[in-house]
Amino acid sequence: MKREHLIILAIVAALVVWPLLMGNYAVSQANRAMIYALAALSFSLLAGRLGWFSLCQTTFAGISGYTIAILGVRYGLPFPLVVTLALLFTAVSAVIFGLLTVRSRQVSFLMLTLALGQMVWALSFQWVDITGGYNGIAGVRMPVYGGVDLNDTRVFYILVVTVTVAIFLAVWRLYRSPFGLLLLGIQENEQRMRALGHPVYLARFIAFVLAGMIGGVAGVFLVYDMGIMSPSPLGLGHAVWVLTAAVLGGYRTLLGPALGVAVLIALETLVSQYTDRHMMVIGLVLLLSILLMPRGLAEVFEQYFKRKSKPQASVTTTTRGEEP
Amino acid sequence: MNTFYFLTLNGLTMAALLFIMASGLTLAFGLMRVVNLAHGAFYLLGGYIGVQVIRDTGSLTLGILAGGLAALAGGLLMERFLLQRVRGMDLSEALLTIAVGLIIADALLVVYGGQPVSLPLPRELRAPVDLGVMMYPYFRVLIMVFAVLLGIALWLVMTYTRIGAAIRAGVDDRETAMAQGINVPLLFGGVFAVASFLAGIAGVVGTSYMSLTQGLDVRVLMLSLVVIIIGGMGSLKGAAVGALITGMVSSFATGYLPQFALFFLFLPMTLILVFRPQGLFGRTA
Question: What percent of chain A has pLDDT over 90?
Answer without folding.
Answer: 40
